[in-house]
Write a structure and sequence with these properties.
The complex is a heterodimer of chains A (141) and B (72). By secondary structure, chain A is mostly helical. In chain A, 82% of the residues lie in helices and 0% in strands. Chain B is mainly α. Chain B is built from 5 helices and 2 strands; from the N terminus they run E-H-H-H-H-H-E. In chain B, helix 2 packs across helix 3. The two termini of chain B are 13 Å apart. Classes of the chains: A mainly alpha (141), B mainly alpha (72). The interface between A and B is small, with 9 and 12 residues.
């Protein structure tokens, strides 16, 4: 628990995104025979789950940390945070951008089904987000 | 010369102790940054912007070159 608020919040975000990805993965095992409507529903629910889990985990971890350490740590955002945010945003944009191109190529030339394309786009978004969060952890360490 | 990487160092840690053993949190509050940023600056892991460097120098009542300098 001896980690600062930025690391705690980043870990909560990674956990939330990972939980949502795992949930979607288990609900999309039969994606090849599912309709676009049902696949989209699962993906939208997955995104919603990630948001809820991240908010809940952030609150819980910070409450637990405050109880353990006995003091409330304010989340002050300064120029260093903004710089690191920019680095992580650049990484996630690069990963997501490359993924989109690859998926479009696979859809256009290699007969990738639309269902798989939708899933791949959503998952690449999550992977880009997780990679950028790991970069943040590396920068804050 | 232009391509040569310069290492900017600082005497923030020393100045804190010379200022009634000011804590990292006190300095952070004075210049409106997080304590982790003060730690990163002291360890030379992060070089602050010119504006923040001036704020830190002002917090110690020093000229900027007395706080931040290049290690030749």
């Amino acid at each position: 628990m001896n980690m600062h608020i930025k690391l705690r919040n980043t870990l909560a975000e990674i956990t939330g995104a990972s939980v949502a990805m795992i949930w979607m993965w288990y609900n999309l095992t039969e994606a090849s025979i599912m309709t676009i409507k049902s696949v989209s529903k699962v993906l939208a629910q997955g995104i919603g789950i990630s948001i809820i889990v991240i908010i809940a985990l952030t609150i819980l971890i910070n409450i637990f940390s405050s109880i353990v350490t006995g003091n409330y740590e304010k989340n002050i955002e300064d120029e260093r945070d903004k710089l690191y945010e920019l680095y992580s945003l650049q990484l996630s944009s690069a990963i997501f951008g490359i993924s989109i191109v690859i998926i479009l190529v696979l859809l256009g030339w290699f007969n990738l089904t639309i269902n798989t394309g939708l899933i791949a786009i959503t998952f690449s978004g999550f992977i880009a987000s997780i990679a950028s969060l790991f970069l943040k952890i590396y920068l804050y360490k | 010369m232009a391509k040569k990487k310069i290492h900017i160092e600082n005497s923030v840690r020393k100045l804190r102790f010379n200022n009634n053993e000011m804590t990292q949190q006190e300095l952070a509050d004075l210049v409106a940054i997080s304590r982790q940023t003060v730690v990163a600056i002291e360890k030379y892991k992060y070089t602050p912007s010119l504006e923040l460097a001036f704020k830190i120098a002002l917090a110690f009542n020093k000229e900027i070159q007395e706080v931040f300098f290049i290690n030749q």
